[in-house]
Amino acid sequence: MAATASNFLPFSSVNSLSFTTVKALSESGLSSIPSSFASKNSLEDIPVINPPQGTLPIIDFSLLTSTDPQQRSKTIKDLGKACEEWSFFMLINHGIPESLTNRMIQGIAEFFDLPDKEKREFQGENLYDPIRCGSSFNPVKEKVHCWRDFLKAFVHPEFHFPHKPTGLRDTSFEFIKNVREITRELLKGVSESLGLEPDYIAKAVNLESSLQVFAANLYPPCPQPELAVGLHPHSDHGLLTLLLENGISGLQTLHNGKWVKVHAPPNALMVNTADQLEIVTNGKYKSNIHRAVMYSTATRISMGIANGPSFDEVVRPAPDLVDESQPAAYRAITYREYYRIQQANALNNKSALDTIRIQN
Q: Could you tell me the superkingdom of the organism this chain comes from (predicted)?
């Protein structure tokens, strides 16, 4: 799929106006959004709630890595409960300096402030290009465009990142390396919460050669945020996605039939369980359906780091979690093919996962 045809918005999508990024469209002075951005989402009647304080699960990373066996054991149980009941949690005391996350957010803001001509240098040619920049999600496939510009980069097993603005590449390398180490420890805890050996999942998905994808999202001010969508409801393609934002909340997670607004503590990471984890755990830990919203005056920036299996690894339910009472719920598939299915189509809940679901 050619990025030149799909990454940036075709002019016809914005009523023939000469804008190809949502940022440029936002800054054009429109009082209403083009019809191609107006959504009548199938989940629009689902209530949206502000959860009472203390409702959303919080995992203390320092306790998960503690040498105190009782503290660690309790945290592993809490982690398993969060994965099973919420498919989501907030991670505190993760060890990434706040100064580093602030530099990262500032650098990404400066990237999106580059002239559109300079950003087009990074638009890529196809899904597997290591760096891609564009707007919406997949303008060719989707019926309603997302009010969003993005930057995506494959950052492991080989590190790729734009060379501008100055300093962002070095900052991102340091930040993403920290995220990868945190993810490894989280997956150890997830394995143990399932009664498996700590390195079970890491071995099953060849984590040493794992694909790690960085995605930065810009949600500029929208004149009609009640009609627009930042990102359509979807689940992520990897194992765990770690998310950070610029202090402006916009993530909503679907829980017990309601959209729950997420307000993370300062410098906390938000963690979504993703499709590959649902496959490996044979459905015990479901992937999280979530969406992004935007505002009329504020600019929201988020950074999601999707941590997956090795690109060419065949992913299937863990044999230790399959038996006569719990047969395999998903067919085996390479992560590369799964990534292609998810990225080459419009976002729609768990549509990619549904393609490999086995009806027992």
A: Eukaryota
Answer yes or no: is 182 within a domain. Answer: yes
3-state secondary structure of 111: helix
Contact predicate 176/104, CB 8 Å: no
Reported as a single tens digit per residue, the pLDDT across 172-211 is 999 999 999 999 999 999 999 999 999 999 999 999 999 9
Could you please report the per-residue DSSP string of 145-178?
--S-EEEEEEEESS------STTHHHHHHHHHHH
pLDDT digits (tens, 9 = 90+) for 258-312: 999 999 999 999 999 999 999 999 999 999 999 999 999 999 999 999 999 999 9
CA distance 62 to 50: 28
**Residue 360 belongs to some domain of the structure:** no
Predicted TM-score (pTM) of the model is 0.93
Domain of 251?
A: 3-354
Residues 6+ apart with CB under 8 A from 5: 140
CA neighbours closer than 13 Å in the CB half-sphere of residue 350: 17
The neighbouring-strand residues paired with 214 are: 153, 305
Residue 15 domain-assigned (yes or no): yes
CATH number at residue 289: 2.60.120.330
Q: Domain count for the chain, please give it.
A: 1
